[in-house]
Amino acid sequence: MGLTKFPEVSDKVSILSHVGPANIPVSIDKRTIVNFQEHYFNTNHGEFVVAVKGDIEKAQWPLVRIQSVCVHAHIFGSLLCDCAWQLEESKRLIANSSEGMIIFALDHHGKGIGLMNHFRIYTEGQQKGYDLVIEAYEKLGFKEDYRHYEEVAAILSWFNVDKLNLLTNSPRKLKLIESYGLEVKHSSLEAPHNAYNIDELSVKKDKLGHMISSSVESQNQHLENNLST
Ligand SMILES: [Zn+2]
Q: What is the pTM of this model?
């Protein structure tokens, strides 16, 4: 089966439908229950679920996480990437803030190549020893990232958010969000390194310039010990 080629997003993004809010009680750290208001958006570039804490329209610099769906991590708890940890940590940080929101991108699987193609990345990458962040994408004929955030900017505008504190380590994501005229600060969201995610985090740090601060090697050994106990 041939690979699908993905065009650049060029046509104007619009929100086609919105449903919500629905009040959803969420367990944080298995200790507290925090109420989030969930909204569904369908845009001409994909579907999104947005979980909002507090009065977001009145917030000054609300914490915002833009989370790409990752079936491996968010459903099965894969340790090969930091997606599960980042979502949980975002929920915890936003629950402890007066306002914030998680914008969950249901069509951003595998950096926008889709679920089936992301399985190809994992399968062929693991068989041939490619890194699964950049190298496997190149070998299979993909760009390293197809995600644009015009839809996210449209959703932020829907909530009247024009200043935000973005939870991310990614300079690409920061730059793109800023490019839509939003004022953006950022807070890091660095997962503990372990024997399983170390390959992905190292590539993100070394090749994509992710703002990952601490020493990979020392944390790796420490957490490897923790995981085995
Ligand atoms: Zn993931």
A: 0.87
CATH number of 15-228: 3.40.50.10990
Q: What are the φ and ψ backbone dihedral angles of 33, each rounded to 5 degrees?
A: -110, 125
Q: Which residues surround ligand 1, an ion (CB under 5 A)?
A: 70, 73, 81, 83
User: Is there a catalytic annotation at residue 206?
Assistant: no
Q: Can you give the residue ranges of every domain in the chain?
A: 15-228
Which helix or strand (DSSP H or E) is residue 174 part of? helix 171-178
| Residue among 100, 21, 19 at smallest CA distance from 67 | 100
Helical (H) or strand (E) element with 39: strand 32-43
Cα 208 from Cα 26, distance rounded (Å)? 33
| CA atoms of 73 and 66, how far apart (whole Å) | 16
The model's pLDDT over 187-196, given as tens digits with 9 standing for 90+, comes to 999 888 888 7
